[in-house]
Amino acid sequence: MANERQTIIHSSLGSVFSVFSEEELKKLTKEGKRRIAISGKINSPGIIEVPKGATLAEIITMAGGLLNDSGFKAAQLGMPFGGFITEDNLDQELDFKLFDKNTSQTIIILSDEDCIIQYAKFYIDYLLGKMQDGSLDNYLVAKKEIIRMWKLLDRISKGRANMRDIFFLRRLASTVKEKVNQKHNIMEEIIDKFYDEIKEHIEGHRCYTFQCNHLIKLSITKKCIGCGACKRVCPVDCIEGERKSRHYIDYTRCTHCGQCVAACPVNAITTGNNTFRFLRDLATPNKLVITQMAPAVRVAIGEAFGLEPGTNVENKISSALRQIGVDYVFDTTWAADLTIMEEAAELQERIEKYYSGDKSVRLPILTSCCPAWVKFIEQNYADMLDVPSSAKSPMQMFATVAKDIWAKEKGLERDQVTLVSIMPCIAKKYEASRAEFSRDLNYDVDYVITTSELMTLFKDSNIDLSQIEDSPIDSVLGDYTGGGIIFGRTGGVIEAATRTLYENMTGKKLEKVEFESLRGWDGLRVAEVKVNDLTLRIGIAYGLREAGKLLDKIRNKEEFFHAIEIMACPYGCVGGGGQPKAKKRLETLQQRAEGLNSIDRSLDLRVSKDNPKVRAIYDNHLDHPLSHKAHELLHTEYFVKVKRGKDENTDASKEE
Ligand code: SF4
Ligand code: SF4
Ligand code: SF4
């Protein structure tokens, strides 16, 4: 498929030359001695003929100037050799001797929107990739030190480093310089020029560019016009601000639901956009990048390309992702079926124990696939943390299976796979960075890109989803059933669980899999479903205000339920904060939800337990739902969230 990949991939955050065009790049930039290929934070990346005497500042102007009117930060000449130019040399004539004779004449421009830690990690990833394919054998003598540098940078980017790590970084850089006989070493230059930024990551746990996803907190930027829309929709009233003045978020109470982001008319709320990191990962030699995509993404993204809300474009997304260089395109929906296997088994076990008089068991069971809802209960209902299902969300189940089973079967280590989740959700960015979903600082999900961010990336890369040919999603991990796909709309998770639970408890096949009583658009609904002699009482809520009311009633024993589904966003994930904004919002969300129902209706298999690949994973790896192995890989715990000091609580923007 390499020939279908794009030479240059863009996002509104920058551009990169795809690694697959390197030979072409070399040819292009060596044909004429003064030709360079320029990318990064500039408006018009491409090949430029540089006039004699031109300075880097003039070359940047020729390349359309810096993106978003940002400030110049640095320039990398040639990858991975070459000079590293900072502001001091911006007005000097570009010295072509700074390009190594064995590489293409490329310049990567960094602006003040670039995180220096993320850039340094990219640089080392690139270097390691080149060493792996044998094109940089001379660096092998220092491989150990280079890997150690990467690990230190990784710790810094995840807020787990201390100031002594800068000392170690400097020492390693000096060893590499000596061993490889370099004239200069980029890491030394980065430490010298950007010491304060590194220190800010380590001591302040802050990345001012919002690119280090483990350090991100939702933040309202200077773009805020004080309209108050965010304050009105926030379900936990954690946004403050006077009309016409900048607003602020009290982070200790924020659930990451993203409703403020969806409501903001001027996109003033920053959630951390990892699109550019995604492009860099795709351009890194020998890096294996895989994606997973949530159900709700496929029925919304097409709207930006003139398609009706609810149109299923999963095979077009798959095709577009391959075109920009993704190695495997997977589907989270398959893992939604896996989630149902665990949740339905857990519900059945709790019901059976409860009615046999086991006082340690509490009902209702609460669905747990919405991370905003999970954070809400951790922050506000510390006495009820044993009621949500302990099953991980489909995104996290997929990630565990991909890194701990699929990668192993391919002979890969966890850290050799970069897993990017495409989600309708802002809270998934937060969920992916929860420490319990990591091992030795390698997170199951490396980072999350929202539907809207992916839409912008496709548009910037001139990919039109309405025109692109279909290409099926990789089904190595299996296809999905109708039960998995309806996860994306309100009532879908509990309906999918009820389908499997009903068949498990009665031993009979369902004649009609649609449970109409569980469907609807009201924010709070109650339904009854008969299973054998038991009438299951099920609650369904979306929006955390409604969820709070429901939980209060349960806590006060005013209401009894066997199971409850709660999703933070209106109509469920179809209305997630990471979805494209819609003019006729509620109508559009209903169309998206109907799109998912229509996929469900079109499938032969509609009950999660019938998914053959899910059954195979139990047969081959997990034994049975709720087994010891399943618990180890597919379940999690919840923690009381307490205030941890001022720096953890405040919207970073308040201190600017
Ligand atoms: S993400 Fe949700 S909880 Fe947090 S500030 Fe925005 S609306 Fe409020
Ligand atoms: S952040 Fe956006 S929605 Fe909130 S007050 Fe500012 S402009 Fe309005
Ligand atoms: S309802 Fe869906 S999109 Fe919204 S916060 Fe929960 S998981 Fe994310």
UniProtKB/TrEMBL annotation:
Keyword line: Iron, Iron-sulfur, Metal-binding
Gene3D superfamilies, per database record: 3.10.20.600, 3.30.70.20, 3.40.50.1780, Fe-only Hydrogenase (Larger Subunit), Chain L, domain 3, Iron hydrogenase, small subunit
Domain 4Fe-4S ferredoxin-type: 214-244, 245-274
Molecular function per GO: ferredoxin hydrogenase activity; iron ion binding; iron-sulfur cluster binding
PROSITE patterns linked: 4FE4S_FER_1, 4FE4S_FER_2
SUPFAM superfamilies reported for this sequence: 4Fe-4S ferredoxins (SSF54862), Fe-only hydrogenase (SSF53920), Nqo1 middle domain-like (SSF142984), Nqo1C-terminal domain-like (SSF140490)
Keyword Ligase part of the UniProt annotation: no
Domain of life, source organism: Bacteria
Keyword Iron applies: yes
UniProt cross-references to InterPro entries, sorted A to Z: 4Fe4S_Fe-S-bd (IPR017896), 4Fe4S_Fe_S_CS (IPR017900), Cytosolic_Fe-S_CAF (IPR050340), Fe_hydrogenase (IPR009016), Fe_hydrogenase_lsu_C (IPR004108), Fe_hydrogenase_ssu (IPR003149), Fe_hydrogenase_ssu_sf (IPR036991), Fe_hydrogenase_subset (IPR013352)
SMART domains: Fe_hyd_SSU (SM00902)
Protein name: NADP-reducing hydrogenase subunit HndC
Annotated organism of origin: Romboutsia hominis
